[in-house]
Design goal:
homotrimer; 422 residues; alpha/beta; TIM Barrel; 9 strands
């Protein structure tokens, strides 16, 4: 059993006539798997209830014709415009009370019942259709859950879900008042119906209120994931389910989430433009995240997105140094990854991530990154055909607790000396 | 007549079984007075019109049984949840137009007629009940008036109050147009009804509009105080009325406010975590504030809250050095304070101020701060039994004008070299 | 033909009895032209449809009696309070969704049909009345178009105008989807009616959406200008039309705007308090802006506002050094200006720009700035009587593109090394 490599691919960004060229080049490079579709809802369901899966069938055919296996993402991180037009209230509300509109991604409230109904219908049809495709080996549900929101949506629907969560946790309001210490500053609640999200106040917030909100948000995301996982497991029980986590990101309690996964995946951008300077290409920081990923299920994991070039939205990071892309991939393998999927095949000529580089540059001609990663894959195979499935033996363990992380985020004690976990 | 010492105490934060232990330890330490109740509305009126004063009666009995005298605060700085549920419109609106919700403190508009009605009813019942208690020697109305709002509430009710204030000041709109220089940028008003709070503009504001708003806000707070003071004076004329001011805070014109007080009190946290670095433990800055406090009524004053440990909300300040707490208390006495009340008895295990330390640590066992302050009180008594009631003789005077302070805040002229008064 | 000098004057800020003194002093100083009225709407139309032009007639008479020629500004940058009272919806909405209220300037949405109707009526009456006045030689429309808004208004009316602009540009939604690359992140639009301004999102924006919004905003401003220009050209064809541009400000594509102008004007404040430190009194930066101004119509231009003292709103810039005001004026002439109008005659004693100094200080007595500029004008006339109408011959050209500037603003690539053009 060998280490596998793959790539994230967006056939919808390119003309059909290009697909076979891409497939050949992927094969030539030594890739085994391709992840697709996690941002394609508007093309897969262009009109409500009318599914357009043929183009994706064709793309799968072209790729599998070159021997590549497929992982499909469900596209719930970016609902199509027609859903927003029909039910604008699914657009999330931020902690300042402002709506966050369509035009980016994650323009959706995860507690909203109407939105969940749309997802159920879509995922059911998606599972029915692609569940029978032998070349599809597994699913990734949504994309980087918990990403894109500094805090989860603060809408009426989320507040109502929070109250239900609190009732389940405390049963009666007296228990909640005791646990939250509402005797301080006259905050005693008479009834669960009075409780809101920890919205803007004139001065100060109750840290226990904030802590329970963080826990609720994590649980809501896990419930949102389960909604889809239940459908997919039933429709296609032989395919795996994974999710692309984000290391030390703390929006979701990954211990809880990973219970629902066959294995965890991780997205790593060690040279990302979004990192604080001291964490760019920081080997210890990267290693610590990889070890957390391995620890979640105490087993091997995938890298579902591995940096394959310069990262960038409106600004750009530094160009990876020669050999650096491969080094990051190998570091992941050394820490327990047995599949490494590079993000992304080809740099897109439009959209927010126009400057987030793939293996191929904008022009589509192979260049340094392609050559480097091809060589990396060849060398890795020689060295590591027997490694897959093995796990590093850690001589020390580090306790990581999301509850503690949330508490430290709410009350960091010191501005200096505080370890950032985002 | 001797210098007195005291402590701010929250019996509602601790089990009843602990109260007598606390009272004994206070007496042992040498304390004379205790301030209570200023954040206890939800426990004193748990249901509208249904007062629950017995627990506070009992707390007063326990403390006075150890020889301590009581100051009671009115709890209008934190209305209970049931008021908010019934009339959410009393939650204040910030200058950006956003509501500031229940969940902290000061979640109330001071001009709102409905809220004032609630206060009147409560304060009347409170005064009737505790006015006859001989161990209650005085009242503190509300808490740190003007605190917690960068600017006062911008709601419709406040805007209407502002217009009435302007009509009283200018009588006709032509006078206002002249005074505000509305000929500039075509801002001439035809009628008082057109005038709003100095809300967000596309570009620039009229500095005279801003200045009158600042003056109005101060007058509104004073009016809000008077509402309660009138009831308390009538019900219990022999008890004193004071308020805990905050040095150079400028939201309220303290010269105006102190006319309504028997004496002024001051809250001092010379090592506060919220202070800019250059003002932490700055003796001149502290002295200047104390002198302003003395100057307000040209007589002795109280310290109603004196730092008794590390201060902190989500972050913490530095631990006071050995002897520093006592030194600050003595500096206040040297500048004219004749009573020093320490904030607070015991560090609370919940709430926004979980890390704002009291004399006792969270565990309730006496430690360094207790020992230091006990010693300080003993020494102070030896030295200063005759000092009480005397006043320092200043050899120079410094003019302080709130109007000037407001004008300099609105038009600071320079970012550098500007003296901050907040 | 000689170089001309002038001043911006606000007779409405001062008593009538002062006007002739001012006129005499202007003449004595050597001034030729005076710009007036661009912020006087509330005094020119104090009640809807009831025009009060007499005071401005009188001011023109006084000034022209001293030989001065007049440029009149239309006052659309600051609609009177009665318009706002009647139709509060013309107040602009910012990118955060917040209304920007009356109380500063630019409190108006430029796409709003009701506001445009008010402007049409006013400008028609204004043109009819002053069009026959021989002492009025030209018009300035509005003031510094594009100023005062970080981005243009985001209201429903502007969004609707944007959709119409997009329909004109793309004709069908498929073209727009292709041009914007909406295949990325599932952003495909089914219909133009779904498109909004690039408002707040949860994460990321489409850069092509943002770019078209910038272009639309520029076109909207030009259309707003044309609305007035058409009326004025028809009513008074012999008078010139100009506009006071702002160098490298990029809200309006000045190449497009200047097509509508007989000549362009420029406002220059080389020592402005609002400039980043490295651009204060930076001769190259100033020269580059002047060359852009000359390049717009490849002909001579005016300086309509030239710094005449310290600038300031709530903070103040540095005092110009001796000779610096004249040097800046001469730099403009050397780059192609043939008229230099100083802002402003006398420092106002009220309003947002109370500290934006004019030639005369607040007290109205001539001082250093008056003396310096008087001497500058005398010297300039000796040297430059023959220069007017000539143009510098540039030995190199620099391409400047608003489309490129917008693209670089949306995706600056690097935080460091990025050339700011605002």
């Amino acid at each position: 059993m060998k280490i596998r490599f793959g790539v994230d691919y967006y056939p919808e960004h390119w003309p059909r006539s290009r697909w076979s060229t891409d497939a050949d080049m992927m094969r030539e490079m030594g890739l085994d798997v391709v992840r697709m579709a996690e941002f394609s809802w508007s093309l897969l369901e262009p009109v409500e209830g009318s599914y357009s899966f043929e183009w994706l069938d064709d793309a799968i055919d072209v790729l599998s014709g070159s021997g590549l296996k497929i992982i499909l993402g469900t596209p719930s991180a970016a609902p199509p415009a027609w859903i927003i037009t029909k039910t604008p209230e699914i657009q999330p509300i931020d902690p300042d009370g402002r709506m966050r509109y369509f035009g980016g991604r994650h323009h959706c409230c995860q507690s909203n019942a109407v939105y969940r109904e749309h997802i159920k219908n879509f995922v059911f049809a998606f599972a029915e259709h692609f569940g029978n495709n032998k070349n599809v080996i597994g699913w990734q549900l949504d994309n980087e859950l918990g990403n894109s929101h500094n805090e989860l949506c603060y809408c009426k629907s989320c507040e109502e879900s929070f109250r239900i969560w609190l009732i389940n946790r405390y049963e009666n309001i007296g228990e909640l008042n005791n646990a939250w210490g509402t005797a301080f500053w006259s905050q005693t609640y008479q009834d669960f119906s009075q409780i809101q999200a920890p919205k803007l106040t004139a001065a100060g917030k109750n840290p226990s209120h904030q802590l329970d909100w963080k826990r609720f948000c994590s649980d809501l995301i896990i419930d949102f994931h389960k909604l889809q996982a239940d459908i997919l497991r039933k429709s296609a029980p032989e395919k795996f389910i994974t999710h692309n986590l984000m290391g030390f990101s703390e929006k979701v309690n990954y211990f809880d989430l990973s219970k629902d996964l066959d294995f965890v995946s991780h997205d790593q951008y060690p040279g990302g433009h979004f990192l604080p300077k001291e964490l760019v290409s920081n080997p210890e920081y990267n290693a610590a995240q990889l070890d957390l990923m391995r620890g979640l299920k105490k087993k091997n994991f995938w890298i579902m997105e591995q940096q394959a070039g310069i990262t960038g939205w409106d600004i750009l990071g530094r160009a990876p140094k020669p050999g650096q892309l491969g080094m990051w991939a190998m570091q992941a393998v050394a820490h327990g990854a047995d599949t490494v999927v590079f993000f992304r095949w080809r740099t897109c000529t439009f959209g927010t991530e126009q400057y987030w580089h793939g293996i191929l540059p904008h022009c589509g001609e192979p260049a340094r990154y392609y050559d480097e990663l091809k060589e990396c894959i060849q060398k890795a195979r020689l060295l590591m055909d027997e490694i897959r499935g093995s796990l590093p033996k850690a001589s020390v363990g580090i306790v990581f607790s999301y509850d503690q992380a949330y508490a430290m985020e709410i009350q960091p004690h010191q501005w200096w000396g505080c370890i950032s976990i985002a």
